[in-house]
Structure prediction request, 233 residues.
Amino acid sequence: MGAPGARPKLSVIMPVYNERATVAEIIRRIQEVEISKEIIALDDASTDGTREILQGLERDGIRVICHETNQGKGAAIRKALNYANGELVIIQDGDLELAPDDYLRLIEPILEGRAEVVYGSRRLAPDSAAPNLLFRLGGVFLTGLTNLLYGSKLTDEATCYKMFPLELLKGLDIKANRFEFCPEVTAKILKRGLTIHEVPIRYSPRTSDEGKKIRWRDGFAAAWTLIKYRFVA
Prediction:
């Protein structure tokens, strides 16, 4: 993690698809966080002008990578990892559902040596808004399934905010192309015998009409991913 007393650099990986209304604002919020960091945005073949906004932000030090065809969140993250050079990495969506200044909450247990992997739990924050019933039930089900299969005690498996050492994430050999990235990462971390530490984070959910991409069928893919990696190497 670097020299004693040194604060590790954080690689913020942001897969983006059709987020014209929010992408500049979320990057502004990330930039305001007082932490050593780099921002790597991968545009997954947006069609609404998101790519042009991102390219206009490159002068501000944002690393922008582009897919010519839409490949999914997992594929975008895997590609962006090739460009990351921080000691730690966190995944950031291109919307405004989560607050980047919560990075400071996630990194604290790592700096203090209390954890290696930290998830931001929306369930642990009493003042966080709740998503609609379908998404809420889906999250509860996936978290419960994770705990049943892997003996963990998580409260929010599906959270976007997952922070890990970069080399650990690279070493997991992630295969996911779409939203099954999250359960695959969780499954492979828990199978290694690592404990996932959770901290509360704020959450402001948006609706499908406002641009939310994940759908009910992605929940089935996530469940299958958790089951599959419990029983395969």
